[in-house]
Specification:
Largest sheet: 9 strands, antiparallel
Oligomer: single chain
Distance between the termini: 81 Å
Helix content: 25-40%
CATH class of the largest domain: Mainly Beta
Number of strands: 58
Radius of gyration: 52 Å
CATH architecture of the largest domain: 8 Propeller
Number of domains: 6
Strand order of the largest sheet: 37-38-39-1-48-47-44-45-46
CATH superfamily of the largest domain: Dipeptidylpeptidase IV, N-terminal domain
CATH topology of the largest domain: Methanol Dehydrogenase, Chain A
Number of helices: 30
Length: 1193
Amino acid sequence: MFLGLVGCARGEQAPAPVEASVEGYWVRPFSRASRLAPCGHGNHVWAWTPQRAGLGLVDADGGELSVKLGDESARVVDVIPSADPERAWVHVEVVSPEAGRANAVYSVDHRGSLRRIDALPSQELVLAPSEGHERLWAVSLFTAKTLWIIDPAGDVEGIALSIPGQASAAVGRATLVPVGDGRQGWLVLDQNLHQVDLQAKSKFNPRPLSTRNVRELIPTSRAQRVWVLGPSGQTAPRLLQTGREGAADKKVEPPTPLPDTVQRPFVHQGGDSLWLVVSEPKAAKSPGTSATSPAGLSLKLVTPEGQVGSGVQVEGTPLIAHSPDGAAWARDEHRVYRLGDSGDELARSEVFPDVDALLPVSAERAWIVSRDGFVRLLSVKGSQLAVTDSATTGLRTPVARAWDAHGVWFVSDEETRLHRLRLGPEGLSLTLMLEGVGLGDVRPISGTERFWIAGTPRSYVQAPASEVRRVEVGFEGGALLERGARGAIQMTGTPEAGAALSSLEVDWPGLTRAKGLESGLRIEVRDENGHLVGQGLRRFLEPEGLLFQWTEPPGSTEHLYDLQVSSPEVENGSRLTAAFRHVPFGVPLLDQVWVRTALACVGLTLLLLLPLLLLRPSAAPRRWLPLLGYSVSLVGAGGGEVLGLLSGLRIHLPTVVGVVSAEVVLCACLGLLSPAVFRKLVFTHPFSWAAAPLLRSPAFRRRFFATHVRQVRRRVDVASAQANGEVFVDLSAHVVEYSGPGVPPSPSERTAAELCLLLTHERAHLLIQCAGGRGKSALLRQLVRLSLERFEQRPSSPLPVFIDPAAEDLESGAKEALQDLGLPEELRDALLESGDFFLVLDGLTESRVEPEALRRYLEREMGLHAPLLLSARPNEAYRLAMSHSLRWMAVEPKRLDEAGLARFQAAYPDEKGQPQVLSGALQRICRGRGADGTYVPLLVRLALRFGGGGVDSVINLYRSVFAGLLKRDPDDAATSEMLAFAEALCLDSYWEHRSRLIVFRDSPDEHKLRGLLDAGLLVPADARPGPVPTHVRFFHDSMQSYLTARALFARFASQARWDCLWRAAGEPGFAREQSDLMTEAGSELFQMCAYVFGYDARLRAELARHLELCAEANDERLTKEGILAAVPGELREMLRRSGRSLGPGALLREATRVCAEHGEGEALFLLYARIAPRVWPWKPDEAEAAPSRTDAA
């Protein structure tokens, strides 16, 4: 909006972007040299002049290391860089009146250290390096006794050149041809060919090979093969091949005969093939004439297998040149050809007059130069070589010294002028680089655009203007224009026309020599028409003194100017011009109406927005400052405009009022569309006044609470997944409705959908209460899912809010859970009291919410409007607390009958998607100790997933579940180790502290706990889960009870008395967690102990002993009605008749006897499980430990 305001106020189009460019180059001199030899890495070059003393090592910046030979009469003949980039060989000639001319070879490194190779003779040395300059071969024509092979360090190996029947004598000519790395090669002595192989037993074959009059050798990639050229004008080259030891040689006859006569060979592909210039036979006489057509020339490609391809017909004497990538190009007197590796012509050019030089760049492009200085760039276009660019240089006798894809270096005028022909975006351009010197080699510097240029009386390093690291132009007021090394333009601020120049800097290596001159950097400022409007100078000797003057007064609006910074020409050509184009210059900002209007709008906007962003939501300034800003801007600006009080501020007040009004409307619209913006605005007046009505709107409720719905749905889905992939099976539950005093309870059967309507539509409290393993949590999670679906269809429906089990008060827990909504506290309280949410607590009996806290919530205002969805183990105290509500439902999920079992089996298909069917043994296990033929849902689910072969009891099923989640065999040692750890963990947490929660973070056994967590045995138990949970718990309480029972058995099995059973059955912390795995009542831990300790006579005797002790010690505490209520229903009437004359203690002893004799003893377990909580904290007397007994389990 601010940018739009600025653009409208100025009424102009966006200016063109600022552009920057640099032109020029710099040269730096070093010592005189006519020859240059780059080192292996390309960052240094050896510079020398043949037959002159001394040489130098020059780096890419022109820095020079002078190397003295030690003998004033020594003259450098040649410098040969070695494969070691830090070393080279120097061939020196020493002339003295006494000894005449003598030769020497030195090894020199980059530190200037010289080492003379004294083993070499001093007369008439012939030197030849290997292909990669790994070794240097040397032989003396004066004696020809030894072939010397020198490595880069100057170490020498001599090979005797002993020829049988021939005395050592001087030779007229010697040709050395090392092959590869110099370990093998060829030697021609007086036109006799010999082979050298340092890896063979006989390193020198003294017998000349079967060839004579050798004029030239062309090695191939195979050390045993060489092309041999005879005297000029003789037959084609011969391919000679020797054995591994050089013992035998033979001429290789190709299948296809080579041409009879060859004028000149050209090496191709490293010598493995040759292009030959062959004379074509004369044509026959034409009819009616006596003349014959002249013989022509053609290029033929030959390999060891013979001629390849049809050849290329040429006009006149051809020349072949190769590009850096190995592509072959040819020219004759009129045309240019691109030759293929198959011996044919790939493309040819049109006829060009006077082609003087062919300069290949790649397989696709090449330069050609005519004698008149006309330069063309050729490119391959199908079968044609097309001219893509051309230029007339106007040079006299130009000679190309170096070239690449960007241009060509020429020397002209008898090597006194050096020119650079560059290919740019606008075509070819020629620049004079140096003049007045005798020029030699031109060598590119690897990895840069620099060149070394050899010349007399001095040589140079040349670099382009692109190496400018920084150009900076600054004006007073902080405006700064800067061009970086990569051409990036950075403009800080906007310069003002009429402002003084504050800085002028150019960071460029070419100015190093100019810093001591009296001249300096010049700057010119021109308008769009090219008229000069300002100019200045910065002297190098006075860097602080900047002279600048505007020649025309600045205008009242913004203008675009061009700036040009130029350096003086230094010595022989260094110059630079840096230009900035389309630079906007404006008048002082604070004097412009639109700027002041924009600043006023920004100030008011900050006054409105900063409190929203910086202040705490509960802070009073956060609520009132924005409203104050709206009022001041609208009322004050309007009144000032009417009275004319603000005219001196040069602010467009209607714009300010319009912007502020638009901001208010924009914030309101954004708040309606974005819940995140609404959360920011809801703490601020006047937006907060509209929050409550908006949250009653169905469309806005759906949008605002969408995140909460996703979070809750993900929470229940994760909980179901952590419960071993729990799938909800919709079975009817037994529901008893309580509607207040005087209204009898109303029992019914309800489905999950009907319960959801009771909860969300009729706002009834639901208490899901049953023994462990019946599916309380699964039903609760399904009700939450259904409520979310109902909300998405009817946004007026209440939403679920999960209460932290660690909270001690439901109301405060609900308020804390709603903090993530990002709403003010009073608005959250209003939403709770108006029934927009219902509270969810899974595991009421395991939470810290006491029955008294539940009663208080139900009696408060919030309890009348915000329903409860609770799950709990059977507990009379919580049922009594729920009776204080006006209407609540007791929901009890039923055990599975046969139909329910079938639906359960269908809900958990096998890997092929087919319903699983439990075996008879597994069905018996899943019934527990129930006599009605129904099944425990938890046991069914575990049996369907983990009930394999060998599971014959509830205990084995739980062990199989433990091993199955760990994905290990139940009898594996690792499983037993982890099982022992889990047992100790449960003994410490549940038995010792009655806590279902286990500390995870920073636990010394965290790595083992992580294994159980990753396996799914443990699940996070934090109210707000994070990456690393603080507390964890077992995926089901029954697994923790099972592991605790195992740990108790391991501890007490060998003792004479099992008093731990009384605590497991009677301590309130255990007794309130009821289960029906074994009996219809009793703590889950006691029932697991009954399974683990063994259902045998020892266990029944111990239970009977405890009950008899209890009867004897608690005759006054027990009541006969309580005892009768503890026995099974079928025994109750019989004991009532027989016990009329008995006291409570005697009745308990009689009940113990009758229950022990009834059936298989289930009645005794039920009596024990119900009596122990009634007399707690009484415990059986402790007896001395009995002798150890063998574990029968």
